[in-house]
Amino acid sequence: MIYSILKPLIRVALFFFCRKIYIQNRQAFKLKGPLLLTANHPNSFFDAIIIAAFFKQPIHFLARGDAFNQPYHRFLLGLLNMIPIYRLSEGKENLVLNNYAFAASKRILENNGIVLIFIEGICLLTNQLQPFKKGAARIALDYQGKNPLNILPIGIAYDAFNKWGKTVQIGLGNPILAKQLLPFDDRAKNMNHFNTEIKQQLKQLVIEPAPSQTINSKTLQSIADLGILLHQPLFSFIHMRVFTKTKGTVFYDSVMFGCLFIAYPLYLILVTGLLYWLFGYPAFIILVLFILSARTIVPCKNPAK
Question: Of 222-226, 282-286, 294-298, where does mean pLDDT reach its minimum?
Answer without folding.
Answer: 282-286
